[in-house]
Each structure stands twice: as structure tokens, then as C-alpha cells.
Amino acid sequence: MRSDTDLLDAYSRAVVSAAERVGPAVVRIDASGGSTRQRPHPAGGSGSGVVFAQDGLLLTNSHVVSGAAALSVTLPDGQRSRGDLIGEDPDTDLAVVRISAPDLVAASLGDSSDLRPGQLVIAIGNPFGFQHTVTAGVVSALGRSLRARTGRMIESLVQTDAALNPGNSGGPLVTSDGLVIGINTAVIMGGQGIAFAVPINTARWVIAALLRDGRVRRSRLGIAGQDVPIPRRLAREHRLTQSRGLLVTSIASGTPADEAGVRSGDVILDFGGTATERLDDLQRLLTADVIDVPVPLRILRDGNPRRLIITPRE
Question: N or C: which end of the chain has fewer CB within 10 A?
Fold first, then answer.
């Protein structure tokens, strides 16, 4: 049986290893000047970011860089570079910035769908300007929601008790294997050990859209919902191949879901023939390609499958 000392040593080695692996890819971002409708006053302040491609692409929070006239990026070795904003998506609080610097180290992106509550995670960033601060904790919960500055809900957030403070925003949340599984985005002011990160699986498709179009165009259905398991009895009875679906908890009046006849309590099984086991799945499908396009929606209502036609709008 392993002693407490051995267990603590193993924990320490895991944190040190992850920090050494990802730390060289974590940068500080200083924003200055400029303003937008969302930020009417001149931008200013600092946050964190993580390099995900050796050609100089880094991921950070939208609220760190939004409205800035100039971005200055400080690398771990103290080298500074101008940052150019490629695009931002305030709805998920994510942004992609490009820098030009030699010998960049890129972090490896993981799979946030593999996360489990209680799993060890490490946060790396620059809280209050203290460069390369490392904190550790666990995944407190999954599937949390938080309202973005735009008013849209950011879904499927990772909740963690790893200590985060102003300046950690945009920095990576990392597994003990040194894989980035989230981008730290928010803390509950006055709360103890309650912080949130955007899952990296959400970040992946946002990155692709920003690199392609400079922004993310989305369609919407007008529902709020949550992931739920499908009872095995119903799955067997209706020969369903999936074990989870999306429970509709509310519907906004006059929206595509309302017009299509979706009701609270319905469980969405697939959208356009693609299974939607998680909110992330549905969000990825609500792209610009289906704006104003009739799409089949399969649901469970009162335990029975039904098919509706819904027309998403931007």
C-alpha cells in the first residue's frame, strides 16, 4: 500500500510535469486603447493566452482583446511581440491572435469530452501580472452555463476549484498529461473555488471558424436545455443507438423552435440526422450553413419518437 508521502509525491510530479510541458506555450497579453459598442470605454488591461500552433497562433478570451487598438504579447522568455487579432467570438468568449516570433512552443489540445468530475487539472496564467503562476485543483462539475457579455449563454463550461484571478483569463486549463482541455474564462466574484473554463472541444470549432471567416456565424433554435440520459427501456424499445439526448427546458416565443412545435420536456435526439447527445453537439451543428434551411429534428415526447421540421435563423 502506498504511503501518504508517495501519493503526495505522485501528485506533485503530475503537476510539475504538466506545468513544464505547457508553461512554455503560455503568454501574457496586454491590451491598450480602442473601444467598441460592447466596451464603450478605452480597452486596457492584461490577460493570458496559449500558443496552439508553432506558426504563431494563440488562443485567448475575447474579453481580453476586444476593442483593443494594440496588443502586446510577452513570451515566457521575456521576448515581446505585437499581436494581431485574427478574430473573436464574444458568444463563447474566445479569440485567436497571431504573433511573429522564432522558436515558439505550441501546447497540445486534448479532448474535453473525456473529463470527469474530480479529475486533477492545472491552470497556468498571469494573475495580477504575476507571470506564469501555476495553480492546481479538480474538475468540480461539467456542463455549467454562464451568460456571455453578449447575453448568449455559454454552454457546457468546465467548473474547477483551481484558483483563478484577474489575469488568468485566456490561459489554459490542463490535464495531468499536459493536454489543454479548457480556456479559463471567468470566476464568481466573492466565491471561493468557483471558476469556469470554455471546453477545448468548443474552442476547436471556434478556431476553425475564426481562421476561415474572422468571425463565427451561427443559427439559433430558441431553446434552452441540458444533457440527460435516455432510459435504457426507451432506448431498447425504440432501437435508439445513443444513450443521451438534450432535454428542452424552455422555449422563447416566436423562435424557430416555437414555430416548429417544440415543447418544454421534449428530448432532442438528432438534428438533421446527426445525433445530439450533448449541447456541444447541437451547437456545432447550428452553423451558418443551416440558416433559413428547413432541417428535420427528431425528438422524444412522452416517451415516443417524433419528427419535426425546424428552420433555424441567424
Answer: N
The answer to whether residues 60 and 112 belong to one domain is no
Phi, psi of 21 (to 5 degrees): -75, -40
pLDDT in tens, 216-259: 888 999 998 888 999 999 999 999 989 999 999 999 999 999 99
State yes or no: is 63 an active-site residue: yes
Q: Is 112 in the active site?
A: no
The answer to whether the CB of 44 falls within 8 A of the CB of 4 is no
Q: Which among 62, 63, 227, 270 is annotated as catalytic?
A: 63
170: cell is 485566456
Nearest to 200 by CA among 229, 235, 171: 171
Domain count, the chain: 3
Question: What is the b/e burial string over 248-283, where b = at least 16 CB atoms within 10 angstroms of the residue's CB?
Answer: beebeeebbbbebebeeebbbbbbbeebbbbbbbbb
| Last-in-domain residue among 43, 75, 98 | 98
Instruction: Specify whether 51 is located in the same domain as 20.
Output: yes
pLDDT of residue 75: 94
Told to judge if 41 belongs to the known catalytic residues of this protein, a careful annotator would answer no
Backbone angles phi, psi at 276, to 5 degrees: -120, 85
pLDDT at 167: 87
Could you count the other beta carbons within 10 Å of the beta carbon of residue 44?
14
Below-70 pLDDT ranges, the chain: 1-4, 7, 34-44, 151, 189-191
Asked if residue 188 is part of any domain, the answer here is: yes
Residue 244: give its domain's CATH number: 2.30.42.10
Q: What is the CATH number of the domain that holds 25?
A: 2.40.10.10
The range of the structural domain enclosing residue 181 comes to 108-205
Q: Does the global pTM surpass 0.70?
A: yes
Catalytic-labelled residue, pool 169, 219, 270, 280 = 169
Domain end point (choices 68, 98, 128) = 98
Among candidate residues 30, 89, 91, 93, the one labeled active-site is: 93
